[in-house]
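Dear all,

This email documents one entry for the complex benchmark we are building for the journal club exercise. For each entry we list the sequence lines for every component of the assembly. Then comes the predicted three-dimensional structure of the complex as a token string, followed by one or two observations. Please use this as the template for your own entries, and keep the labels exactly as they appear.
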Amino acid sequence: MTMQTPFELSARGVPVRRTYSDGLPNRAGLGLKPQHFAEILATEPDLGFFEIHAENYLVAGGPFHHYLHRIRDRYPLSIHGVGLSIGAEGPLDTTHLDRLAALLDRYQPQSFSEHLAWSTHGGAFFNDLLPLPYNRVTLDRVCDHIDRTQEHLRRRMLLENPATYVEFAASTLDEAAFIAEIVRRTGCGLLLDVNNAYVSGVNHRRDPQAYIAALPLSEVGEIHLAGFAEDRDAAGAPLLIDTHGAAIAAAVWELYAFALERLGPTPTLIERDHDIPPLAVLIAEARCAERWIGYAQRDRLEISA
Amino acid sequence: MSDQRLFAAALLDPDAPCPAGLTAWNGSDPARRFAVYRNNVVVSLIDALADTFPVTLDLVGDEFFRAMAGIFVRAAPPGSVLLAEYGAGFPAFIERFEPARSVPYLADVARLEMLRVRAFHAADADPISPERIARALADPERLPALRATCHPSLGVLRSDYAVVSLWAAHQGHGDLAQVDPSVPESALIVRVGLDVQVLALPPGGDTLTASLADGLPLGQAAALALAAREDFDLTAHLALLLRVGALTALVQPTEA
């Protein structure tokens, strides 16, 4: 599981406590899509890992499990939940936690992650990651839900920072401080979604680099990279939408490089859920991420030499 | 009302005001930003229905389908995070949806597509082996008491319309223009290996298959099938079910 080493120096000479991820290799991986199942098994591309959305695989049998079993035999796996609704006002769905526990037991993934968001209320599921205010009340509730999740699943989870389009008058903490306090209280790790950090940075005019630097980076177990769409708010200011439906933007690659300088090599997922291109296009993005991981590795070696 | 209840209600109601307490750094109207969530929720759920019901969509066109699905989504959001089952209530909604009345077979085509998705994700099970088939059928005297276990993916749809031909024409099998939608057809939906098959069941075959799936012994199921269709060919129909792997066991009550 998690191994920690003492403080090290990052490329910029900043002291950084290193935490190795929970078993995912420090390489790039791809989201697993049904349209790529057969090609992956036929060609076995050189990738660090695959990631699935847990809820898609909570089915009894059929092709999804058939292919996932075979791909799991060949690659490390990350299971990423999108429906636990950790930020919900209501209690966690223990039936869903049981289902997740069974899925984790079946596939023994190297990592399990979920979102700082809510998606259910009053028995309805909204299929979107909805925002919450950041204050003492919501902090206590989210920490309680993460404690229960980690106890139920008997493992550490990674919590993903959200992409948001609104802020709340009821917020008293900034997002990075809120997340840092969750990590401190619950011992969960962090899934740093660099695209979300960028999207939210633009949408709320905050500096994404300062935001990332304020997060508990020593607890990052995985990075997500994705593409966004561009819109405008009512005043004509840019409003970026986290669509997972486009190539990763240049600005997000730059922010990724900034993050890796501080983190060192970190498992990185190329996330694509809409307008899914041929596998080769996604592999090319994974190669690009691995070049940056390679630079981060080299920088660390130079400093320790 | 709680904050999230207000937020949730406004997501599904396009006429509801933007929830109070939302802000933007530039003081712009948060309603425009809230609309992103509203759009994400409704569009992603319409997309989920479009994935489950592609032929239903083809039959009425993208614009009509998305408008109809949007009304359904707002009236009946998913009650589970497992979206594979979302849409189970959509065929009945289509049946009551006044603007779709001119396409009377639409609801049954949607029922067929829902059965396909269920078959796709159903539990795995091995079809009955040839040795066991031979053993089960060896003694003609004991055939009437035989009970079948159907594959978990098996579904039967009886329709007043030509659902199988309509569906097949959208898979490139047959000419849609040649299909008379008013001819009643029944469909057998079953997953063979990794592929979901849709087969036309002859008259009587639907009764037999549905009766076996309901747990009736073969003799009773065959009698019902013969009552439905006096020239029903039991041997040919059993051979079809066995050939596509629709049965996973054939047992005498004493063996159960």
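Observations: The two ends of chain B are 55 Å apart (CA to CA). The first strand of chain B starts at residue 22 and ends at 23.
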